[in-house]
Amino acid sequence: MVLQSATILALTPMMGQAQAQLALSTAFNRTVRNRVLSQRLAKSYCQILLGVLPEFSNKVLLDVRQQVRKGFDELSTAPLPAELASRIAEIKKLAEASDAMAVLPPTRETVSAVALQSDKVMAATNATAEVFEKVAKVGSAKLINVAGRQRALSQRIARDYFLTAAKLDGKGLQDQMKADVAEFKKGFETLKAAPISTPAIRNELELGQAQWLFFETATLRKPDDKGMETVATTSERLAEVLEKLTNLYDAALKDVLG
Questions:
Q1: To 10 degrees, what angle do helices 2-50 and 54-75 make?
Q2: What is the number of helices (H) and of strands (E) in the chain?
Q3: In this predicted model, what pLDDT tens digit does every residue of 98-111 receive, in sequence order?
Q4: Which of 2, 32, 25, 6 is nearest to 145 (CA)?
Q5: pLDDT at residue 91, as a whole number
Q6: Residue 59: is its pLDDT beyond 70?
Q7: Where are the domains of the chain?
Q8: For 39, 62, 206, 220, which has the most beta carbons within 10 A of its beta carbon?
């Protein structure tokens, strides 16, 4: 009994650390998800301005706004270091500014403002993701970041397609689209070569690449009514696959830590 008690006491700090890491993994995923949500919000808001599948676009916008609020509610319960907590608070402030604009009837001015704000959210979240990786002290945490960034890149490419259709393609937008496409393809190669893999992950990677081909082909079309509808639907299907893929990496990371 004495030996058993001593063993339990010795393991308690290790168990506490593992539990903290598990909570950190989930918080990491919830935080980086703000990148994709910011871009989906701007994308769907622009779709509404353009009259692209109005009911569908409004549903996506409402869903995104709900996910953003739920995500920050969940993060408020996570035990995080002070630096991460302050960074997340800043992301929340930026996201709330986007949300406040997105409830207004879309105009060219408000759509441009929401798009600009979405990039601010993405930049702040990218910086926070780097801090998360250092705090996690687990190399495979990078996979959650890469998979999560794939989600955001796909949606920013779609957003920029619609901004172009609305003739809101400011300086550098086309260059950014090309850079995002190249980075997305590079990200897939990184994930395919990663040491952490499961049958479910490999399956989602294959699905993701297939959906990417549909989506990329759609973005090369002229932004007429049919073209915009195709980009709207294929971008959402791609987002669903990439969301599941990121969650699978989250689960795999928890298995490693456990």
A1: 150
A2: 8, 0
A3: 999 999 999 999 99
A4: 32
A5: 98
A6: yes
A7: 20-257
A8: 39
